[in-house]
Amino acid sequence: MEIGIYGLGRMGGNMATRLAQGGHRVVAANRSRGPVDEAAQNGAIPAYTIEEMVSKLTPPRVLWSMVPAGAVTDETLDGFGTYASRGDIFVDGGNSNFHDSQRRAETYSAHGFRFLDIGVSGGIWGLKIGYCMMVGGPADAVVVVTPLLDTLAPPNGWAHFGKSGAGHFTKMVHNGIEYGMMQAYGEGFELLHASEFGLDLHAVARVWNHGSVVRSWLLELAERAFEAEGSDLAHIKGYVADSGEGRWTIQEAIAHDVPMTALAHALFARFSSRQEDSFAMKVAAALRNQFGGHELKTE
Is 178 a catalytic residue? Predict the structure, then answer.
């Protein structure tokens, strides 16, 4: 079948390529020209504006946005609406807040469009091994895009979870869990690194990936990182960003009275990674000096 994809970053570009390789007619567009030219080399039909992308597709169209969450997603979807026809399907495959997805579904359905929120996981590896996809929205629209989802996902790698917002809600919690897993690995490897044994962390990760109860794809990536960078990870700065899903997960946990101690800790640990010299730790050091006479390290 055919599809228009707008937003050809690391995820969107590879998704366009995977679909083209799977035999679909892909019209690929982006704000800048370079990624469009690259997509064309990988089998997609180039389009340099949303209007051109829509014009090269036959109704009922599937118009898929792969841009960052927030205002740019609204701008992209509104652009779809400017040139689309009633019955066309809009897909938001970015990491949008599920409340935004519910709002968008209501807005676009009122104008005769169908809207799907699809949480996509797989990162830069999705081109080769496929993408896990969590789908929310009307079932009739899901039926239309099923051939695309079957191509993008590995076997059993996608599911429709219900009404609008369900896809991005599920992806939000998925990313919250990811925060916790990454923090657990990080803390464990820090203790291994600090020990007296001079451990080869690449070897530890490799062994744990064979039969251990903590084996996972994330641990496989840790194994690769230690192989490339060494046990000290000397060339990597300990700064960890977040794209919003972890915060939203904790906010929803509070709203539903669900204790999420591990995930909350992982989120706040990311915040601490951004502080060159934590004021809170300055206060703690000063207090230890005041009550116990513990030595202060000064600049």
Answer: yes
